[in-house]
Write a structure and sequence with these properties.
This protein has 17 helices and 10 strands. It is of the alpha/beta class.
Length: 404
């Protein structure tokens, strides 16, 4: 039986009250009943779609929002909500169309311009995305999401000054935002500006995420009455990143927490993750040591002392995703690094082990390499026996392998 107008009004009022009270499931049932009775009601379809968005049921929200956008062609929020739903579903082309309709209805809205930029960026149309962020910022020069997004685009193409300017502007409004501070820190560090960048990079420890931290006071560089734990902050201590950080950064006195296959190489005392931490006064994440101790690329401590000794043979260690030249006899077993006379590797722990052992090592870095390496190629400040090359520099690598 069809609902009367009064029943429709009552259902709508009750559903809105439920939504205002946070009872979205109850609100959805009310709006769904109205839509069943009045399938061409643009407002009811729009409200049903909005409620499903709040419930995180984006696939189910799409159909009523698409119908609402057709029945309410001059309602800007109907177009915006449809676009938001499509973005969540990864449907960026139709989302861009909906945002275009919204921008036509409200051309001076910075949020619409920003979301257009996000969608264009997701489609790989970086230049158009940047123009959209420019428009958003011309309408609101402190729009944080656009400042942050444009900074990312500028940094990706090496325009450090512009990226830093955007992040500095964003930080005027939110000076304690850890994500903005971390991003600014990484930009400064990639340029080799450790003096300004290291403090900002510590903001990463304030950001919730999959990061390990022991139940100990965090060391701030003060004298200790007890042992200092040095630990990789990666949640997976068996990961290549954690192994690499141990070999690269554990350059001071302390007990090193590390994977067992790294521990047997180290002359320093070690401890496994999960072992009791009695007798420790404090702990420091390895990536905080440059900040805590004032390291620079010109004044790094020597590599960690190793029990393992190099006993080179004629073998060449190969620990890179790049395939070795045809005919080159290579060793790919990381346990045999010490017996290699030359090692070629990506920024992975076997290459770090080889360099720590004093073996000539060619480390192949991507253009967005870890900030710890600094901005320059050539002889590494971390290891006297390591040379840094771009991983795309096939000619340079071939020249160094000539005659091997």
């Amino acid at each position: 039986m069809a609902l009367s107008e009064q029943q429709i009004q009552t259902l709508g009022r009750e559903a809105l009250q439920r939504a205002a009270a946070g009872d979205f499931a109850g609100a959805e049932a009310g709006f769904a009943r109205i839509v069943d009775d009045r399938p061409n009601s643009g407002q009811a379809l729009h409200l049903l779609g909005q409620i499903r968005l709040k419930l995180g049921r984006f696939a189910e929200a799409r159909e009523p929002l698409e119908r609402a956008a057709k029945f309410l062609p001059r309602e800007v929020t109907a177009q915006i909500n449809l676009a938001g739903c499509l973005i969540q579903l990864g449907q960026h082309e139709p989302a861009l169309l909906a945002l275009g309709r919204a921008a036509h209805l409200k051309p001076d809205d910075p949020t619409i311009a920003h979301n257009t930029g996000r969608t264009l960026e997701a489609l790989g149309r970086a230049e158009e995305a940047e123009r959209a962020y420019d428009l958003a910022l011309s309408l609101d020069n402190r729009l944080l999401p656009s400042l942050s997004a444009r900074a990312g685009l500028l940094a990706a193409r090496g325009e450090w000054a512009g990226a830093l300017a955007d992040l500095d502007t964003a930080l005027v409004s939110r000076p304690n935002d850890p994500q903005l501070r971390q991003r600014r820190g990484e930009l400064l560090l990639r340029q080799g500006d450790w003096w300004r960048g290291l403090a900002d990079h510590e903001a990463r420890l304030e950001i919730p995420g999959d990061r390990y931290a022991p139940a100990l006071p965090r060391w701030q560089g003060e004298p200790l009455d007890g042992r200092l734990l040095l630990y990789p902050e990666q949640a997976d201590i068996e990961s290549d990143e954690a192994r690499r950080d141990v070999l690269m950064l554990a350059r001071i006195d302390g007990v090193v927490q590390c994977a067992s296959d790294i521990a047997h190489h180290l002359a320093a005392p070690t401890i496994a993750r999960g072992e009791p931490l009695e007798g420790f006064a404090a702990a420091a994440p390895l990536r905080s040591l440059p900040h805590l101790l004032g390291w620079t690329l010109d004044s790094l401590p020597p590599p960690i002392a190793l029990k393992t000794q190099a006993e080179p043979s004629q073998r060449i260690g190969w620990f890179s995703r790049r395939e070795p030249p045809v005919g080159l006899d290579v060793e790919r077993d990381a346990t045999q690094v010490a017996s290699c006379r030359l090692v070629v590797g990506d920024d992975t722990w076997p290459a770090h082990l080889a360099a720590s052992l004093g073996i000539r090592t060619l480390i192949l870095l991507p253009r967005t390499a870890d900030w710890l390496w600094g901005p320059n190629l050539g002889t590494s400040p971390w290891y006297a026996s390591a040379e840094l090359l771009h991983d795309e520099d096939g000619e340079g690598l071939a020249a160094r392998l000539a005659g091997c």
